[in-house]
Amino acid sequence: MSLTLFLILCLNGLQYGLLLFLIAAGLTLVFGVMGFINLAHGVQYMVGAYLIFAFTGLTGSFWLALVLSLITALLIGLLLEYVVFRHLYSRSHLDQVLATFGIIIFLNELAKVLFGPATLSIDTPELLSGSIQLTEQLRYPVYRLVTIGVGLVVAVGLFLTISYTRTGMLIRAGSTTPEMVSALGVNVKQLFQIVFGVGAMLAGFAGVIAAPIFAIEPGMGDNILIIAFVVIIIGGVGSIGGAFVAAILVGLIDTLGRSLVTEALGLVFNASMANQIGPALASMLIYILMAAILVFRPKGLLPAKGAT
């Protein structure tokens, strides 16, 4: 593998990892803070992608569509929490799984009705089109570099908010002693609604920034939800820092592994067979890592404070 290809794969892995973090951050807050299993979190990633597609077509401006998509994703998250999720807080995990799985089916079918089953795409905004020279032999798309930078900014901002602000303190306290927080005059239900809304907006934002890179299609959030659960298990349920570290690890392992495993198999098998088997074996690496973490660090790499 050449140095240029290695650098490209590292940057692609970093970008993919930060995309996973945006999804896993909201999921780990909802799951860790509220103990609520929200399988519909991945479909909110799909909703974000379709929102940016629709608003870009309506307004003709990617940047205006970005703002409208984030606001709408937030409102959808708050609406789902108010109409469906809050009635399931005290129910069993099985009830939560069944109800949120129903939402997945409903929204996937709604996407087909509104936009059709065909794969859609949007163009990269003109301001961020083109590429930039990083080394003598490496040019990398500006849009991908910007998504890496934005992902890092969001990660730092979210970590500081959860760790050092009053709202973050209440969210952490509400996850362990909701009765005490409620006795102090804090509306715990409203606090949980904020967590849901922010989580939905983060997942929607991931869909928005992914839309110019990946295909927009019904069910696009289903597979990435599974990987997001892997991320929060590796990082530690309820831990923003853990989700960030785990997401970067998963992104790099998944991206580099596909090339390295294929090259390693090429030493044993012919090129055609190696190209067929390599990606399939490489996709197993993140699950092997998850299994190892569960054996040696059951609470995750960076468990949340007070995790039991």
| Lateral arrangement of strands in the main beta sheet | 1-2
Alpha-carbon Rg, integer: 20 Å
Q: Please mark out the parts with pLDDT under 50 across 5 or more consecutive residues, or reply none.
A: none
Helix content: over 70%
Tally of alpha and pi helices:
12
Number of β-strand runs: 2
How far is it from the N-terminal to the C-terminal residue, by CA? 43 Å
Helix/sheet category: mainly alpha
Q: If you average the pLDDT, what whole number results?
A: 85
Shape: globular
Element-level helix/strand string: HHHHEEHHHHHHHH
Tell me the fraction of residues in β-strands, as a range. under 5%
Describe the structure.
There is one protein chain. This protein has one domain (15-296). Strand 1 (131-133) and strand 2 form a beta hairpin. Helix 1 (3-34) packs across helix 9 (220-235). Strands 1-2 form a two-stranded antiparallel sheet. The mean pLDDT is 85. It has 308 residues and is mainly α. The chain is globular, with a radius of gyration of 20 Å. The protein contains 12 helices and 2 strands; from the N terminus they run H-H-H-H-E-E-H-H-H-H-H-H-H-H. It is found in: Cell membrane. This is Amino acid/amide ABC transporter membrane protein 1, HAAT family. InterPro entries: ABC_transp_permease (IPR001851), BCAA_transport_permease (IPR052157). Keywords: Amino-acid transport, Cell membrane, Membrane, Transmembrane, Transmembrane helix, Transport. Belongs to the binding-protein-dependent transport system permease family. LivHM subfamily.
